[in-house]
Write a structure and sequence with these properties.
The protein is an alpha/beta fold. Helix 4 packs across helix 8. It is globular and about 75 Å long. The relative contact order is 0.16. It binds glyoxylic acid (GLV).
Length: 355
């Protein structure tokens, strides 16, 4: 019997042949753009041996069909996958770390600069044809207020989650002149923290401080705060009104992790009332259904981009390749390129992006 594989997105001309040309596979491919939705998955997964899914396909108890051996997600995060259900049925889970690290770190820096330097308001003003009076005559008060912002590049960088992507973001941001790095991470093991801090300081001699802290201190001291931890119930709305109220009025918040970590209404209120300077978000709770009247989209000091952190050719082809490799290895019980260690996840230790 051929093995049935359900694939919810076209992996492109480089990678699809790995599946289509495979003699032992029957491929069922979602034929449209966008997400397949749960019903299509439920209709097709019974009898399937494996599947390749994307961010918005929820693989839960119901969707994990009786013959399923492997779920391969073309993402590094896997909060859309019910790991308990998979563990119970001994279904393997593959993800795609590393190949997207550089792209997401680039996007994090881009958002920090865009938010910090008022880019959204600037492009809006140009598009509305008001730049002559509002910007290009900027030395006249009160228009100065509309164009000027603080200098990005000194003080303290904060990170929620301090895994691979956060460290790659730090490597870029130290070039701007930051000297302190504070982070919040799930692991509270002091030996491990000391080790990590030593390594990071060794890489970046210009940093005077690399320190694991509590959320309150992170909120109070960060000049640019990068959110790069996984989603899921444990990190849900970790950035809420209470957190935002403690931030510096000049601070910038960047979310390239998961939308669920940030309470959008609280962030919109914080920006409106000036509790912080600006925000840049690649991920928003409720995506992909974000429309022009979303409170964050309407905020002039909030840059919203549509989850394109990993969207470079290089990284997406890398992700598609690893997703296919994981699937093929998992189907025949060989070691995957990147397998999520499910028992660890059950104990509450996610190994993907947070340390
Ligand atoms: C994207 O958000 C991913 O988890 O890869």
């Amino acid at each position: 019997r051929k093995m049935k594989v359900v694939v919810t997105l076209n992996l492109g001309p480089k990678v699809m042949p790995l599946l289509y040309d495979h003699p032992d596979l029957d491929i069922v491919l979602w034929p449209h753009a966008g997400s397949s939705g749960k019903q299509w998955l439920l209709d097709n997964i019974p009898g399937a041996d494996g599947c390749i899914v994307m961010l918005f396909e929820k693989v839960d108890e119901e969707a994990a069909g009786p013959n399923l051996k492997v779920v391969s997600t073309m993402t590094v995060g896997y909060d859309h996958v019910d790991v308990k259900a998979l563990t119970k049925r001994r279904i393997k889970l593959g993800n795609t770390p590393d190949v997207l690290t550089e792209a997401v770190a680039d996007a994090s820096v881009m958002l920090a600069l865009m938010a910090g330097r008022n880019t959204k308001e600037g492009t809006d003003i140009v598009q509305q044809g008001k730049a002559r009076t509002l910007c290009w005559s900027c030395l006249r008060r009160p228009n100065l207020q509309r164009v000027c912002s603080g200098q990005v590049g000194h003080g303290t960088l904060g990170f929620i989650g301090f895994g691979r992507i956060a460290q790659a973001t730090l490597a870029r941001m130290v070039g701007f002149g930051y000297t302190r790095c504070l982070y919040v991470a799930r692991s509270k093991d002091p030996a491990r923290a000391a080790d990590l801090q030593q390594t990071v300081k060794g890489r970046h001699p210009s940093l005077t401080t690399v320190q694991q802290v509590e959320l309150d201190q992170l909120a109070r001291e960060s000049d640019v705060l990068h959110v790069l931890a996984p989603g899921g119930p444990e990190t849900y709305h970790i950035i809420n009104e209470e957190f935002l109220k403690q931030m510096k009025r000049t601070a910038i918040l960047v979310n390239t992790g998961r939308g669920t970590l940030v309470d959008s209404d609280a962030l919109a209120k914080a920006l409106r009332e000036g509790w912080l300077w600006g925000a840049g978000v690649d991920v928003v709770e409720g995506e992909p259904g974000i429309t022009a009247d979303h409170p964050l989209v309407k905020e002039p000091r909030c840059v919203v981009i549509p989850h394109i952190g990993s969207a470079t050719w290089e990284s997406r082809i890398g992700m598609a390749t690893v997703a296919a490799e994981n699937l093929l290895a998992g189907l025949v019980g060989k070691p995957m390129t990147s397998e999520v260690q499910l028992p660890n996840v059950e104990l509450g230790i996610a190994v993907a992006t947070i340390d």
